[in-house]
Amino acid sequence: MTKKEKIDQILLLLREQYGPTRCYLDHETPWQLLVATILSAQCTDDRVNIVTKDLFQKYKSVKDFAEADLKELEKDIHSTGFYHNKAKNIIACCQKLLAEHNGEVPSDLEALTSLAGVGRKTANVVRGNWYGIPSIVVDTHVKRLSNLLGLTKNQDPVKIEFDLMKIIPEDKWIDINTQLIAHGRKICIARRPKCNECFLLTYCTGGQKLQKGKII
Q1: Has 139 been annotated as catalytic?
Q2: Binding-site residues from annotation
Q3: Are 16 and 6 in contact (CB under 8 A)?
Q4: Residues in binding site for [4Fe-4S] cluster
Q5: Active site residue: 6, 63, 139, 209, which one?
Q6: Tens digit of pLDDT for each residue in 53-103?
Q7: For residue 216, is it within any domain?
Q8: In this predicted model, what pLDDT tens digit does every residue of 113-172 receive, in sequence order?
Q9: CB 138 within 8 A of CB 121
Q10: Contact at 8 Å (CB) between 91 and 39?
């Protein structure tokens, strides 16, 4: 089986199992998605959604966040962890959105990554899930599963992103993000992977090694 055939099968099986999945962060606007993604660093999506349910009722616009009191915002987002840096970045990010983008969230990668607290991962979440621009988001699940499946040998998220961009058809970039996340949560759980239940085991070099009792 060629690498292309293997990838085609993986993509087919992921789609059959999970379909085209949606972003796991609750949002109604691009700036809400941007703020939620900043909050999601080192935090679960479920926790972020709990926090933003009240947060977006209190801060109803980019301007509200730009004018927020740092200490008060820290309290509002405390349970997401790293709240000092996140609060500082959200305020600075929204101030720049007002000053340079008329309060609108840009779709351009360079413009997005120039905002405080926004790296390639956050930018690609916004680009893919709001603007529909083909983008690959490398979170912990995508990083781990891509290595297990033999799609990359890199550990650096940016290098993994570019590795996947070379081998995954562009029209599958957005879907594979959430499909791999779904698979990482349901089957390929980090500390207790359910290899015996995994429909990708045939194509998973890492899983096959685990089954044989070898160290990856």
Answers
A1: yes
A2: 188, 195, 198, 204
A3: no
A4: 188, 195, 198, 204
A5: 139
A6: 999 999 999 999 999 999 999 999 999 999 999 999 999 999 999 999 999
A7: no
A8: 999 999 999 999 999 999 999 999 999 999 999 999 999 999 999 999 999 999 999 999
A9: yes
A10: no
